[in-house]
Amino acid sequence: MIPNSYTVDSISQSQDLASKIISSSTPQQIISACATIETFLHSRSSDQSRHFFSITFPTLILKLFGFTNDSSATSPPQCSSWIDIVSSSNDPDFASRVFHLLSPNGVVFNSIFSIDRKSLVKFVFPTERLPEWARFMLSSEKDVKILSNLCPLFKGKVKADSIKSPGSVYQVQLNVFEYYMFWFAYYPICRANNENNVDNLLTKRTKKEKFRLENWTYSIPGFSSNAKRVPEQKFECNLYLRLLYAYLREFVPISDLNMHQHPYRSSLLNYTSGYDGSVLLRAEFLVDAFLNYWLIDNDFSPLSVNVCKWFGVSPRLSVVSREIPPTSGLGELVKLFVKYLNLSSVWATNQCESNVECSGSPKWMVPDSPSVLFDSSVKSGDLASLVPCVSAVGSWNVWIQRPLYRFILRTFLFCPVGTSIKNASEVFSIWVCYMEPWSITIDDFVGFDALINGCTKNARKEDSQSQDCGYSSLWQGYVLSNYLYYSSLVMHFIGFAHKFLHTDPEYILQMVLKVLNILTSSRELMDLIKNVNTVFHAEQSRSSKSKLHSLYRFVPTIREQLEDWEDGLCESDADGSFLHENWNKDLRLFDDGEDGGQRLLQLFILRAEAELQSFSGDNLAQNLQCIDSLKTQMSCLFGGHAIKPIAFSLEPEQQQQSRGEIFKPKRVGHHALADFKYKGDWMKRPISDDEVAWLAKLLIWLSDRLNEILGLNQPKNNSDVGPKWSYVEVSGDVVGNVYGPMETIKTAMYAIGTWLRMLVAAFVDLMRKHGVRCAEKGFQTFSQSLDKRV
Q: Nearest 5°: CA angle at 400, between 397 and 402?
């Protein structure tokens, strides 16, 4: 039992240490605070360090990330955060000192694991700092009860608030490790939103300001070099990126995932908050936290459609989450995250290659039968199978497929027109990296490893030189399980390229060329993509001897992925997209229609040539060479000519159409006019489906009466050559008898009366045809009186 005096002393020391952390705003003060924290934790056991985590640790988090005590979710990180101070100092030694305090093997994390092992401290995470879709679920009493089942991240963590309205207000309770990782994942989201708000305010302010000299001199090449440049940040001083890789490397295994599985754990739904029984449980929590904060967050369809149907929840949260792009500024973090998780795919492929008994693709890639997610006969006891378990598939790829696809797709579709494409280019690099997992090697992480454990780059290169960085048949399963990345997403990207071609033609052209280079990088890969597209649009062959017969079993899974991964996206949502009228509800990359991939790429090439030639520059020859390369890759992918000859003649027709041919309707009923032969007077033909029947009949009747009055319905003399024009001969007596204004008024009144009489007669005929006879007598009386007055 700890003495009461010692407890009081520990509380006071923790409070003093918290005050010291708050006042630390210079590198020297931060280094001193780090040393004090390490000394304090080294000299105390887990029971004695309880007050540090309950009093000092929240202060350390707020100061590390620059948050305030304000509960508002919009409160931005302060400029005096430790991460910003380390980045602005550009001092590698200073960055290493702070990194050593927060590293996975440091004293802070060792104390965290000791505290969590005994469950001595619990935290309540602010609801307003959760992902947007989770905040919506917590606001509904119906949805909050199944939130733990919908998302494993909140399994066992959603509790009723015992202080504020018990049973109606819920909160998320976390242990120390979970609490820190939630703040760690939330930091880049809050920082990016703050930077975006500042940029929007500056943009609005610039538009309101008057004309100033620097506003136009900056656009002149001779003066643009005078702009202030931000000093390049050293790689060693990016504290957040270093910590991210260190946590992934320490807590997320990428090789032999089955060895980390708990012996009594059957699924992800059966774990508790303690992580001592399995390393994989902590890894799944960390990966799930990054996915929900960075990739899902404000997605209007955050969960799988089948999981939502199972629990009776609407899969779309469009009522709360608008169709907006994902948070910008996360490209570098997400790329590192995705590349690291794809190392598990590389490891699985290498293991399959080294195993003599392994034939075909690794088992983690594509199931042999349709997924249980779409089986209506699944019992409630099999509910655990709805949630992906990484140990069952041997790779993290199944975890990131849907969130990453929607993250990339929403970026391309909802990127605002007139804004910079910097964020879209970062997301594009993530997509390209994901499409080429065979190009990921250990060399990509040499710099991070050197900072963590001081390993040399030469030792890493020796291991990675033996790896093949090209596509092989061992990656067939990976491509099949992620087929939409190579087909449907390509079509959406082409629409994005058309939409933003005018912003930066050179860079957009290079992006399109990069995608085609990947699709045509290997003949085997290109044939696989084409063959899957063929069997997708064809009925399953009855003959088992067909070469493509083995690919038919993947078609149902691809269809289900297309419906699930693009759920919630419709024509009206993607305003401005090139595929607005013909939405990509099907795989149209190799379609020959106007909305097919080949036609859209042909149009893109024509537009790109026009954009590049509209302004003369030093890179014009290089850009035209890039267009030639694009044409070559198109010919390789689709076959034939890159730009097909135009099917219609560009010369104007010599024969002029008559008036009747010009105004003749194109369709009659449900048949084309060419298929409908009518012999007789064209004015008495049947009414077509694009005409208003009663209005057409009324106008034809009026035209016929006028022609009869004017004598234009007289039969033509066949002996006459050429059209005859009717002339009205006015006698000299009539010309001489001009009676002035009164005669003119009478003539006008006569004309008006005649027109009203014709209009009344038309209405009477119309009412007779429709069976309306109650007012017929009145109309006739009115017509007779009108005739008498006229």
A: 115
